[in-house]
Design brief:
eleven-stranded antiparallel β-sheet
Length: 158
């Protein structure tokens, strides 16, 4: 009996320092550089989400400097001093601003059910009109990637 008590105390002390870590995934506004790959075509851009509006600004290809601002109802294409607005039902689902907007609408609606912990952050899975997607996010809440399996579109954040 005298031997059991010190062993029991040692076990208690061993586990006293352990704490269950809770993970709180967060979907928040962001602004990051990214590379968009679709099939054999790729380009670099800046992507931001702010107050339910996604902006994608090209940094490479002939579209360098062109921005697409999408709010769920329409897209505003901006280049130099030109602007052109298109209503949402006329915008292809593969448009990067629309695709990213719809991903984050799904994530916000389905949080936290669609979140799982990874080695360096979080993984979110869902489905939009473009198909199934996976979002990877780092522990610091910056984004690693968005992939649309069915559409062969991959966004890799820098």
């Amino acid at each position: 009996m005298k031997r059991i008590i010190p062993v029991f105390i040692a076990v208690i002390l061993l586990f006293a320092g352990c704490k269950v870590k809770t993970y709180n995934p967060e979907i928040a506004d962001f602004s990051q550089s990214a590379a968009v790959e679709t099939g054999s075509f790729s380009y670099t851009c800046d992507i931001s989400l702010s107050e339910n509006v996604v902006t994608v600004t090209a940094k490479s290809t002939n579209a360098n400097g062109m921005s697409i601002v999408y709010n769920g109802k329409s897209a505003m294409f901006k280049y130099l001093d030109m602007e052109y607005e298109i209503v949402s039902d006329k915008i292809d689902y593969t448009n990067p601003a629309r695709a990213v907007f719809e991903v984050f609408e799904v994530l916000k609606a389905e949080m936290p059910e669609n979140a799982s912990k990874t080695a360096d952050g979080f993984r979110y899975d869902g489905k939009t009109e473009l198909g199934s997607f996976t979002v990877l996010q780092y522990d610091d809440y910056s984004y690693k990637s968005i992939s649309f399996k069915d559409a062969d579109i991959h966004i890799v954040f820098e």
